[in-house]
Write a structure and sequence with these properties.
Blueprint: E1 4-7, H1 17-29, H2 37-43, H3 49-59, H4 69-87, H5 94-103, E2 107-111, H6 116-123, E3 134-136, H7 149-162, E4 171-175, H8 178-186, E5 190-194, E6 208-210, H9 218-223
């Protein structure tokens, strides 16, 4: 029986990956490093800010001249906040699925590698805030996706909030990246992938792949539980 649906945020609820890329580029340029779009989307989408910069510095030693991770994160965060003011938008189809879940009393949460501040900024004014019972963000975990820590924590908090005993097998995770899908599978949860960021072949491990969340029916969700 389906009890909960946990959404990734970037690339699933909000069309924010291009905004994050712009902010990462601005931070990297401060230290004379050009982060190309191909490189970012191939190797770094799905990482939290810290993991992204740590891996960049590891993979390109000496090229981020004089940089340290905390300073890169600070610059990226400030750049992202400025970009969000004019370019933030919710992906079409999200609200349709949220309405279906709410109508059927399915509990709803977010588990994202973004910071809580970023998520709240993107949701501000969207009219969607009330759908989400809780948010697990990068601020809440020590290991990002593909580690299942975030999804395990989201389920723990859902159960604690209402003294329930929802099992991982009674949850569906909606993701846009293979990192996120790997995390959900490791947590023992069912998976849906949406092709907002990657082509379907990159998301083949998902039980269901869709182009738009608004196309998902409640019957399809229940079908994943069988």
């Amino acid at each position: 029986m389906l009890k909960a649906v946990i959404f990734d945020f970037d690339g699933v609820i909000s069309d924010s990956e291009p905004l994050h890329y712009k902010a990462f580029v601005k931070a990297a340029k401060k230290f004379d490093f050009e982060l190309t779009e191909d490189l970012y989307y191939r190797d770094y989408v799905g990482y939290c800010d810290r993991e992204c910069f740590e891996n960049l510095m590891k993979n390109f030693p000496g090229q981020l001249k004089g940089a340290n991770v905390n300073e890169l994160i600070r610059i990226k965060t400030e750049a992202f906040e400025e970009i969000v003011k004019t370019e933030a938008k919710i992906i079409p189809g999200v609200s349709d699925l949220l309405k279906i879940l709410k109508k059927n009393n399915i509990r709803i949460a977010i588990c994202s590698g973004a910071t809580r501040r970023d998520i709240e900024m993107m949701l501000a004014g969207s009219g969607l805030n009330h759908y989400f019972e809780l948010i697990v963000s990068d601020d809440d975990v020590t290991k990002g996706k593909p580690d299942p820590q975030g999804y395990n924590l989201a389920l723990q908090r859902l159960n604690k909030a209402k003294n329930t005993s929802i099992k991982p097998s009674q949850c569906i995770v909606i993701e846009d990246s293979h990192w996120g899908l790997d995390a959900a599978i490791a947590a023992g949860m069912h998976t849906i992938a949406v092709t907002n960021t990657y082509h379907p072949e990159k998301l083949a491990m998902a039980e269901l792949i869709v182009n738009n969340l608004g196309d998902i029916t409640f019957e399809q969700l229940l079908g994943l539980m069988k």
